[in-house]
Design a protein that fits this description.
Length: about 130
């Protein structure tokens, strides 16, 4: 079994985890929360096969934190949800999660903002063609 064989199922599980979070964000039902935690447990369990310490529980901890933040919804929870959103690279998934979370998008939008094409990085610096004495 090579590394490629172990990476592909993990990519699928990671996508399933994100989609399970989206489903819980929409329904807020306990069965969907348990689905998020089950997938997180599976991802963490696969992480133990490598050189990661036996107590690896990143996805379980993150899932519990996200689910709790969605259930409580205070200002501190908006920060947690925005931090999670900022890590989502898939544009469609990011938009769907942002809509489902219904949180102010200030931090997530700042993290995703691109530099304008007319932004002049070198403004104010002397050019090489005209060296200054």
């Amino acid at each position: 079994m090579d590394r490629q064989d172990t990476v592909e199922p993990c990519v699928g599980l990671l996508r399933a985890w994100h989609l399970a979070i989206l489903r819980f964000a929409l329904t807020r039902e306990n069965a969907d929360r348990l689905g998020v935690l089950a997938i997180a447990n599976e991802i963490d369990r696969r992480g133990r096969l490598g050189d990661i310490r036996p107590g690896f529980s990143f996805f379980r901890r993150t899932s519990a934190e996200l689910c709790a933040a969605m259930a409580r919804r205070d200002e501190k929870d908006d920060v947690v949800l925005n931090q999670y959103l900022a890590q989502i690279d898939d544009t469609r998934l990011h938009r769907a999660l942002a809509a489902a979370f219904d949180v102010p998008q200030q931090m997530a939008d700042l993290a995703r903002k691109r530099v304008r094409p007319d932004h002049d990085l070198w403004r104010g610096l002397p050019s090489r063609a005209n060296p200054q004495p």
